[in-house]
Request: fold
Amino acid sequence: MTIQTTNWHDKAKSVTLPSRPFIDGAYVDARTNETFDCIFPGDGRLLVKVASCGQDDVDAAVKSGRAAFESGAWSRMPPIERKRILMRFSELILANRDELALLETLNVGKPIANSYNGDVPSAANCIAWYAEAIDKVYGEVAATSHDMTTLIVREPLGVVAAVVPWNYPLSMAAWKLGPALATGNSVVLKPAEQSPFTALKIAELAFEAGIPKGVLNVVPGLGHIAGKALGLHMDVDCVGFTGSTEVGGYFMQYSGQSNIKRIGLELGGKSPQVVLADCDDLDFAAQTIAAGIFGNSGQVCNAGSRLIVEDKIKDKLLEKIMAHATALTPGDPLSPETKLGSIVTEEQMMRVLGYIDAGRADGAKVVAGGRRVRSETGGFFIEPTVFDSVANNMKIAQEEIFGPVLSTITVRDFDEAMTVANDTIYGLAAGVWTGSVKNAHRAAKTIRAGVVWVNCFDRGLFSVPFGGFKQSGFGRDKSLHAMDKYSDLKAIWFAH
Reply:
């Protein structure tokens, strides 16, 4: 059966929804009696109650991870063997593609086609990429005196806490697991409480692939309980976090309050799409800009949420973007035909609608969308929304909305465009649209962001690092640079 011929509603009725933590190689009962509800955003119904891990569960997971690390079963395993096992892990993710895609969509409400064709193969490819990198990362021999030989070697940190968001639960887990496991660490993975299913499932697959017990533990739970417990834990050596800037600040505090653990942060964004008057393909720009803000219902950290456009072409470009927005209709996440799914929770939907109301109140003009739709289903859906007449000091231009909302800001020239683009606390990503090589280079060097796309948007490869400047965080996911977060350098001097 193909994705098009599969009845995903029928499959949803029979799929097993994992709801217990995975610790020391097995699903176990949580030590608390607390649970949280997992809701299907497509219709608002309760799917299952999931164990909400507390301090004791986190302690058990960290203890298991530490024991595995100190045993050397994984940390000192020959690199070629770690590579073989991680490749098998990648293969098992693909072999369970249907189930993982369904779990992802049930948790998040994204279209099943996106989960099946995007999230699952991307996660598998990430694990495979880092598996292939294991035996291609070398130490160094330093230039020292003739009677000395000095080695510089990389060593794993120990126990890594990976705390991941709800918008791309499986992909973001893989972005942390790939480099952390490849470098020989044990990992305690805490998925967002909105989306624990795929994290819990892949722990089982990792164990099946041959990753020793304790090397990967998963603790579902609330951020202010389980996440905080990991951040403050004295036996956690590193936290890799993707999420909001606010919560990233908490993890910085937790590090200082505990054992000065290493922190890597991939945080929020308010990414500009700068369209200069010399852009020579407004049709492609409009199509790509629409995809860059409405994809995943705008629930993307690097979503191109600020359209900064020169006044000479603003009306023409905006008309084209509006056409894409009005043609994109939210639909049933479990239908293979759906291009735009739901908002993850009712709370997040109301938050986004609150921003839309704030934009109107501040004097911005809604020119497309702006409403909740499909309310009769019980699900959480918002139309793709486009604002015009936005000033960069408005709330909708400065704060991360995390929804399908585009704010259009008109500028007079290149210099004003650059000033507006950088007038934000964030610096995760940016897009620049121009037909001038000179302007492309000037803009790419001027904009303060970790990623700048020129005449494209949201392109990525595992060989290319991803991360932000300013309050969008520090440290990098993807590429060999991500392995820096999860390893440390040791200098070894031999006198002879």
